[in-house]
Amino acid sequence: MQPQKRTLLYAIAALIVLAIGYGFMPEPINVETAEVQQGHMRVVIEEEGMTRVVNRFVVSAPVAGFALRNNLDIGDPVSRGDKICDLEPLRSNVLDPRSRAEARSRVAAAEASLHAAMENARAAKADADFAKKDVERIRQLFKDSLVTQEKLDIAEATMLRTDAALNSSEFAVEVARHEKEAALTSLKYSAAEHTANVTEKVLIKAPVSGRILKIHHESEGVVREGEALIEIGDPSALEVQVDVLSADAVKLRPGMPVLFERWGGDKPLHGRVRSIEPAGFTKVSALGVEEQRVLVISDIVSPPQEWTQLGDGYRVEAGFVLWEDKNVLQVPSSALFRTGSSWSVFTVKNKKAQLRNVQTGYSNGLRTQIVSGLTEGEMVVLHPDSSIKDGSRVSTRREKD
Predict the structure, then answer these.
(1) Where in the chain are the domains?
(2) Which of 17, 151, 208, 319 has its CA 20 to 30 A from that of 35?
(3) Using an 8 Å Cβ cutoff, are 260 and 271 in contact?
(4) Alpha carbon 28 to chain centroid distance?
């Protein structure tokens, strides 16, 4: 065979072997990558909160009574000392047939007692008149030395006793007369009867200047002693209350910055933690899990003109800033995985995956700080699975920003 033909056959055989070998080679693994970046990073605790007026005054009924309808509406301004409600005495009860019969019997008994007292007074007056005349007669006899001093003293004592009995009987007549009037009031002031206009009213005034936040009792009707009537406050002085998990509350400190987002405005509002309440409470989550939560009170420090539309009881989303830095080397948290006790990532170089151990810092859930092991601009594999090994061939697609 000629050398040229032999060389051609060898070349064709080599190509066939290469083609077969290439066909059995594993295909590159499709992966999504992201760039290691240097930039701003913030670690926050996010929870829903609610605005509330700092100083809220609840005006309550000082006594039980009949509250008249007021003409105030929510949002109306009031000044200290302005009338906000009138409180009249409670209305009388309606007499059922049994109660009315009992009331009439008490009136009849009171009339009989009055007559008896008047008769007793007449008897006492007669005794008093007789004792007075007896004393005058004995005094004349004493002057003529016909009776002793003892006889005169006895007569005078009897006169004093009968006078006292007369006064007592007259007072008993007045008592019986008033008891009759009291018995008549049950019939006279029944709710079914037309009574005179109420002359006594309790005037309830605003304790402070502000706006009406809530009206608990708008229509007229009976109110109990201590029942809330109206709430007054200044809606321009707001604070934000947020209930956070107790495990997160221990990380917060007074003075810590807060960002209020998704409250309806164009940009977040800035705030500052004022206090963390020392006592927690149990709250059932939407999934039915009992959670221990703590109330955190924060002040809004942004200029008031930026949040003039906020009012009492508005929803906000609060982000408590635990840590923040403007120059942080970071990667998406989905690129990290555990290898033993260390964190690792896959970098991509020359279309091959390279295993790299890294040291991490802060994490906000989406992005993680890299302390060492990577440099800015390197590409890392996102969501690596068990099919990727150190040195595996990969085909990459860039994560969308």
Answers:
(1) 26-39+327-398, 44-53+235-326, 57-86+202-233, 97-188
(2) 319
(3) yes
(4) 60
pLDDT in tens, 172-229: 889 988 888 888 877 777 666 655 566 678 889 999 898 999 998 888 888 999 999 9
Give 233: exposed, middle or buried? Use CB within 10 Å, 0-12, 13-18, 19+. buried
CATH 1.20.120.80 fits 26-39+327-398, yes or no: no
- What would the CATH number be for the domain defined by 44-53+235-326? 2.40.30.170
Q: Residue 304: which of 352, 333, 339, 269 has the closest Cα?
A: 269
Which two three-digit tokens encode residue 377?
């601009």
Residue 98 in tokens = 């049994």
- Residue 369 and residue 375 in contact, taking contact as beta carbons nearer than 8 Å: no
28 torsion bin: left (phi>0), alpha (psi -120 to 50), beta (else): beta
Please report the sign of the dihedral spanned by the C-alpha atoms of residue 185, residue 189, residue 194, residue 195. Answer: positive
Tell me whether strands 394-398 and 29-35 are parallel, antiparallel or unpaired. Answer: parallel
Q: Which parts of the chain register pLDDT below 50?
A: 401
**CA distances to 33, 140, 225, 290, 342 from 22, in Å:** 26, 162, 93, 59, 37
- Give the C-alpha separation, 169 to 119, whole Å: 9
Locate all alpha helices (DSSP H) within 189-286, ordered by sequence. Answer: 246-249
110 φ/ψ angles, rounded to the nearest 5 degrees:
-65, -35
Please write the tens of the pLDDT for every residue from 266-324.
899 999 999 999 999 999 988 889 999 999 999 999 999 999 889 889 999 999 999 99
